[in-house]
Amino acid sequence: MPTHRQQSFLATLWLKNRPVNTLGTLLGKPAWVNWLGNVPVTVPHIVGTVRDDSAMLSCQAGITQAALTLYFRHTPGGYQLYVREPGAYFGQGVVIHGHAHLGVLPV
Question: Which pLDDT value is given to residue 41?
Answer without folding.
Answer: 53
